[in-house]
Write a structure and sequence with these properties.
The chain is mainly β. The chain contains no helices and eight strands. The strands form three sheets. A three-stranded mixed β-sheet has the order 1-2-3, with no helix packed on it. Strands 6-7-8 form a three-stranded antiparallel β-sheet, with no helix packed on it. It has a two-stranded antiparallel ribbon with strand order 4-5. It is found in: Cytoplasm, Cytoskeleton; Nucleus.
Length: about 90
């Protein structure tokens, strides 16, 4: 499964079948469906990456990181610190 589009084209926001979400440009594994959770944002939300090298993080603010594919540097969105489903968890 790869993502992401905006303006109504995001098909994986409400998709909860088992699997691994990969980069849409290089198929690098990013997130597991096991870490996916329902969220009000228009994009899929995850609590963790598949591996430590799945993504590259660039600090934007104290509570947000820009997230890039760990292999090809494709822009994926953000990690929001302490905005996950449980206290202390991040939301990708």
């Amino acid at each position: 499964m790869s993502f992401c589009q905006f303006f109504g084209g995001e098909v994986y926001k409400d998709h909860f079948k088992p699997g691994v979400y990969v980069c849409s440009k290089c198929n690098h594994p990013l997130f597991s469906s096991r870490s996916k959770f329902a969220h009000s944002s228009p994009w899929p939300a995850f609590t963790d990456t598949v591996r430590p090298d799945s993504v590259t993080k660039l600090m934007e603010t104290l509570t947000a990181y820009k997230i890039l594919c760990g292999k090809c540097s494709n822009g994926l969105g953000h990690e929001f610190v302490n905005d996950g489903p449980e206290e202390g968890q991040s939301r990708f």
